[in-house]
């Protein structure tokens, strides 16, 4: 699919025109996609200002995981004046399926409406964020704050199910506890609501990402699930460096799947099976430019171009001249400047190779 066509699909969603008619959505979404995935399930973590529509298109093209999530979106914002600004975060293309829309809120009313919207937009599932440690999110009683309010967490989960009407599955992403490991009490409460899947970040909210992930707790979570005879899938998350590590952690813990986040930075080929060392520098830089073009086309009107610069740090490392190239890319103000910098660098590389061949 060309970038132009992808851009058109994106704007169709922004205009709230679904890919399918309402009847098509209902007919196509009666199946719980989680049940169709081979284990261990490999999932892309939702990350704010990282796994946006532009980057997800790149990932889907070069190494698609088993399931994707959108960035988390404020359910309250969607229905309290911020819809125009946020609806673009719910754009997706067919190549990203199966994909779940992730929302955060502490309001069952807002969650029900958001889940209904996800169904209308043709998403394959809805995911509820119950693990984000951001202070702004927690002030709303959402994200990780719901761990401290299990009664409200259950209400929000039930509301999401009402919103989807059972047509698409509802899942949860959370942590092992708030200030301490609470998996023995927190997980059973969630399992009673029978979400399709629960992804557990193997740290507490207090720990954020400052300590090694507690994968022994993920193993315990699987045992708790098995003891309760719940059909809910358990996915583990935290400090997973690559696919081999993910498979090893799934085997060690018995988890149904593994979610990878930071491992994707600079490596949209992660799920392709291609060794990272086998990808040429030229290909990496060409994809960097492609990624930048998509970002500007799809998100440039409403997001700061500086967001792309965290990706440049990840794409451009581990080779001679990387630091100098990174510095030039960091100074770029738009895709034209980025493309110029990359082409100039690659042109220089070609000239060096030609000179070396002549000397040889």
**Helix content class:** 40-55%
Q: How large is the count of helical segments?
A: 15
Total domains: 2
CATH superfamily placement of the largest domain: Aldolase class I
User: Which fold name corresponds to the CATH topology of the largest domain?
Assistant: TIM Barrel
Mean pLDDT: 90
Shape: globular
Structural class: alpha/beta
Indicate the CATH architecture of the largest domain.
Alpha-Beta Barrel
Contiguous runs where pLDDT drops below 50 for at least 5 residues: 11-29, 350-360
C-alpha termini separation: 43 Å
Number of strands: 9
Name of the CATH class of the largest domain:
Alpha Beta
Strand residues, percent: 5-15%
Q: State Rg.
A: 21 Å
Q: Main beta sheet: strand number and arrangement?
A: 9 strands, parallel
Strand and helix order: HHEHEEHHEHEHHEHEHEHEHHHH
């Amino acid at each position: 699919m060309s970038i132009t066509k992808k851009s058109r699909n994106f704007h169709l969603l922004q205009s709230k025109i679904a890919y399918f008619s309402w009847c098509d959505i209902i007919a196509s979404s009666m199946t719980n996609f989680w049940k169709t995935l081979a284990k261990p399930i490999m999932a892309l973590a939702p990350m704010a200002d990282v796994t946006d529509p532009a980057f997800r298109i790149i990932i889907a093209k070069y190494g698609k995981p088993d399931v994707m999530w959108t960035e988390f979106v404020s359910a309250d914002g969607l229905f309290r004046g911020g819809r125009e600004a946020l609806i673009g975060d719910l754009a997706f293309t067919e190549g990203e399926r199966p994909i779940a829309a992730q929302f955060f809120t502490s309001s069952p009313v807002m969650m029900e409406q958001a889940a209904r919207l996800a169904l209308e937009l043709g998403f394959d599932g809805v995911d509820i964020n119950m693990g984000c440690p951001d202070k702004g999110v927690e002030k709303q009683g959402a994200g990780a704050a719901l761990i401290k309010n299990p009664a409200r967490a259950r209400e929000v989960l039930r509301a999401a199910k009402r919103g989807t009407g059972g047509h698409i599955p509802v899942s949860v992403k959370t942590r092992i506890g708030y200030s301490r490991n609470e998996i023995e009490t927190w997980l059973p409460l969630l399992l009673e609501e029978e979400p399709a899947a629960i992804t557990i970040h193997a740290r507490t909210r207090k720990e954020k990402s400052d300590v090694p992930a507690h994968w022994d707790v993920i193993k315990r979570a699987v045992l708790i699930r098995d003891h309760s005879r719940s059909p809910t899938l358990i996915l583990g998350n935290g400090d997973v460096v690559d696919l081999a590590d993910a498979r090893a952690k799934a085997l060690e813990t018995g988890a149904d799947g593994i979610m990878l986040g930071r491992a994707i930075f600079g490596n949209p080929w992660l799920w392709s099976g291609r060794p990272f060392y086998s990808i040429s520098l030229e290909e990496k830089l060409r994809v960097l430019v492609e990624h930048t073009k998509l970002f500007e086309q799809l998100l440039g009107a409403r997001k700061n171009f500086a967001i792309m610069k965290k990706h440049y740090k990840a794409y451009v490392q581990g080779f001679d001249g990387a630091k100098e190239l990174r510095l030039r890319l960091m100074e770029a103000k738009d895709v034209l400047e980025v493309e110029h910098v990359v082409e100039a660098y690659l042109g220089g590389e070609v000239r060096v190779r030609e000179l070396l061949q002549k000397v040889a």
